[in-house]
């Protein structure tokens, strides 16, 4: 049953529940594809951002218990900078793009490991509770340069990856310009800057964390499919619903 009281604790912001992920914004990820980017049906590297959706059933908060599918064995932990839209953005210029940002937040984008980037499988990327948000929204002006952040990823308290926003092909402003060229972003929408190559993997029984000094610390734990950890039932579509509301500009 849907519980409309479950919200990301991010006052005064309220997220809309619409989350767009960005693929292949890390040059190392694109390079790993090799000659595959020149194969049919695309026959060339992407010229525009490659986006995917994280539906409402995927949304959950920092500290959640997340199920690992019995047939998968492990999940990939993708660390991303979340761009919270503060003003309606349609065909914005790169120079004006940041004026449409309300704030920033950490996001853990979990998925079953796979190599399909152009047509990412819903079954692998849209599992219940696979988009962990938090712990808070940081106002836009609190981050001097969103393209100079480092996100540290750890599994069981062992540092396993550092994601640098500076290495992304498209900066925050450039991504907003290119995305809003073909679609409108509304207040409260969340756009992920992109995932770095080499995202770590974790199994049931392990804990993970993503942190950055300016953004806080996001945590989660992985549990076997159908298992209740610490008396809490792992994330389900209804339990992880995020109430729709606008970001207050």
In a nutshell, what does this entry contain?
The chain is mainly beta. Helices cover 7% and strands 33% of the residues.
Task: Itemize the secondary structure elements and their pairings.
Elements: E1 19-23, H1 27-32, E2 50-54, E3 59-61, E4 64-68, E5 75-85, E6 101-111, H2 122-125, E7 131-139, E8 150-155, E9 158-164, H3 172-179, E10 190-192, E11 201-202, E12 207-212, E13 216-224
Parallel strand pairs: 1-10, 3-7, 4-13
Antiparallel strand pairs: 1-2, 5-6, 5-10, 5-11, 6-7, 8-9, 8-12, 12-13
Walk me through the structure.
The model is unreliable at about 1-10 and about 230-249 (pLDDT under 50). A hairpin with a 3-residue loop joins β12 (about 205-210) and β13 (about 215-225). It is built from three helices and 13 strands, in the order βαβββββαβββαββββ. The chain is mainly beta and about 250 residues long. The longest helix has 8 residues, at about 170-180. It is globular.
Shape: globular
Give the name of the CATH architecture.
Alpha-Beta Complex
Number of beta-strand segments = 13
What would you give as the CATH superfamily? Answer: Fumarylacetoacetase-like, C-terminal domain
Number of alpha- plus pi-helical segments: 3
Beta-strand portion reads: 25-35%
Key structural traits:
single chain; 249 residues; mainly beta; Fumarylacetoacetate hydrolase, domain 2; 8-stranded mixed sheet; 5-stranded mixed sheet; 3 helices; disordered N terminus
């Amino acid at each position: 049953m849907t519980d409309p009281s479950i919200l990301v604790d991010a006052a005064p912001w309220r997220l809309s529940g619409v989350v767009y992920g960005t693929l292949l914004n890390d040059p190392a990820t694109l390079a790993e594809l090799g000659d595959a980017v020149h194969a049919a049906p695309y026959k060339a590297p992407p010229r525009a951002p490659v986006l995917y959706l994280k539906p409402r059933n995927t949304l959950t908060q920092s500290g959640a218990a997340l199920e690992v599918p019995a047939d998968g064995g492990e999940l990939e932990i993708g660390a991303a900078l979340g761009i919270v839209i503060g003003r309606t953005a349609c065909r914005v210029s790169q120079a004006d793009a940041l004026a449409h940002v309300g704030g920033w937040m950490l996001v853990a984008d979990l998925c079953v490991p796979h190599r399909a980037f152009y047509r990412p499988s819903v079954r692998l990327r849209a599992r219940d509770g696979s988009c962990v948000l938090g712990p808070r929204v940081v106002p836009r002006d609190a981050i001097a340069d969103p393209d100079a952040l480092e996100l540290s990823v750890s599994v069981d308290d062992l540092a396993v990856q550092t994601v640098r926003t500076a290495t992304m092909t498209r900066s925050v402003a450039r991504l907003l310009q290119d995305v809003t060229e073909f679609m409108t972003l509304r207040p409260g929408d969340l756009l992920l800057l992109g995932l770095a190559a080499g995202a770590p993997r974790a199994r049931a029984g392990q804990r993970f964390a993503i942190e950055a000094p300016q953004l806080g610390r996001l945590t989660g734990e992985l549990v076997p499919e159908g298992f209740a950890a610490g008396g809490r039932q792992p994330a389900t579509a209804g339990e992880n619903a995020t109430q729709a509301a606008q970001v207050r500009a």
